[in-house]
């Protein structure tokens, strides 16, 4: 028998079932100790492992039917997009599953899609996970995922073709969100800001357009209004934590000012007050000749951007 302080290395790198530990000679008292946590009945996780989507999903799969795979927002999380709520874990399976697993939703499917291994876990395609997630996500976050797909995973034509031929639940919502998706979006925050401005009835900014030319480039603002020489940019926390990055940002802004541009910098704290963001952009546009009406904050805008702020990574 393995003594309490000696744990086989096979049990330290991933979640495992009770039977696996017992077969290796680890007794139940050791498993009840501080070195392990038990997220599900008969499933243990070494406490040296982080509590992230990968580990949580690996553990959930051990408690679920053997043919289960991550789906919906959980599938997106494994593909590096932190969107929606991290809990519960969403899995899909073709097997009957009557037993309830706390913190896990198992969706019944008639057939198993093609799965590709990601970080040791079988995952369906990003576009499939997006369509399934549209049943769980609000409108703004549906567009966030669509922008992310177009930026990193699939071209617009292929994604539109996929939406035309699939019959998954959520596809109608995905098709509606697709109308507002744009290429070349670098971060979810850019999507949220763009939609925040657009649905307040301001002109929609372009996305990551090179200002200047290849010989004398000025820079690429996140959300430029080229006609008015106004750029809207989101600066994440790393822009302030890294001194070298801050220096590069300052020099870059000076180049835009020299070229006659006005940059509006949005931070994580600003995202808590989306109405102020809209007014700041509106005032800057007015100063540069925009003659359109002031922003409108209707019930839909308030619901999407104030009462239920979209959850997206910084």
Structural write-up:
By secondary structure, the protein is an alpha+beta fold. 39% of the residues lie in helices and 15% in strands. It has helices at 18-23, 28-31, 53-63, 72-78, 126-133, 139-152, 156-165, 171-178, 188-198, 238-241, 243-258, 274-287, 299-307, and strands at 16-17, 36-40, 43-46, 69-70, 89-93, 104-108, 116-118, 121-123, 211-212, 217-219, 223-225, 230-234, 262-266. The chain has a three-stranded antiparallel beta sheet with strand order 1-3-2. A three-stranded mixed beta sheet has the order 4-5-6. A three-stranded mixed beta sheet has the order 11-12-13, sandwiched between helices. A hairpin with a 4-residue loop joins strand 11 and strand 12 (230-234).
Number of strands: 13
Order of helices and strands: EHHEEHEHEEEEHHHHHEEEEHHEHH
Q: What is the percentage of strand-forming residues?
A: 5-15%
Structural class: alpha+beta
Helix content: 25-40%
